[in-house]
Amino acid sequence: WELLQADTLPLSSAWQTQLRALPAASGFDLSRAHAAFGRYLGSLVLEFCEIHGIDLKQIDLIASHGHTVFR
């Protein structure tokens, strides 16, 4: 494999606050946050591709470490 592009971005303060509150959230709120975080990461991927001139059809794999809520 070959790593062609990579970036590390800080989480917004709003996401930091929301993620810190998740250990006390209900199952419903965890599910909503899971979906919203996935959409957020997807939007960052699209922005990354635009910035670097990457055609989405050329991408075979996108990796994300995700976020751990419970230890």
Characterise the protein shown here.
This protein has helices at 13-21, 27-52. It is built from two helices and no strands. The protein has 71 residues and is mainly α. Helix content is 49%, strand content 0%. It is elongated. The chain starts with 12 loop residues before the first helix and ends in a 19-residue tail after the last helix. The mean pLDDT is 89.
Structural class: mainly alpha
The 3D shape can be described as elongated
Distinct helical segment count = 2
Q: Strand-residue fraction?
A: under 5%
What series of H and E elements makes up the topology?
HH
Question: Uncertain segments of ≥5 residues (pLDDT<50)?
Answer: none
Biggest sheet architecture: none
Whole-number mean pLDDT:
89
The portion of residues assigned to helices is: 40-55%
Distance from first to last alpha carbon: 32 Å
Number of strands: 0
What's the gyration radius in Å? 14 Å
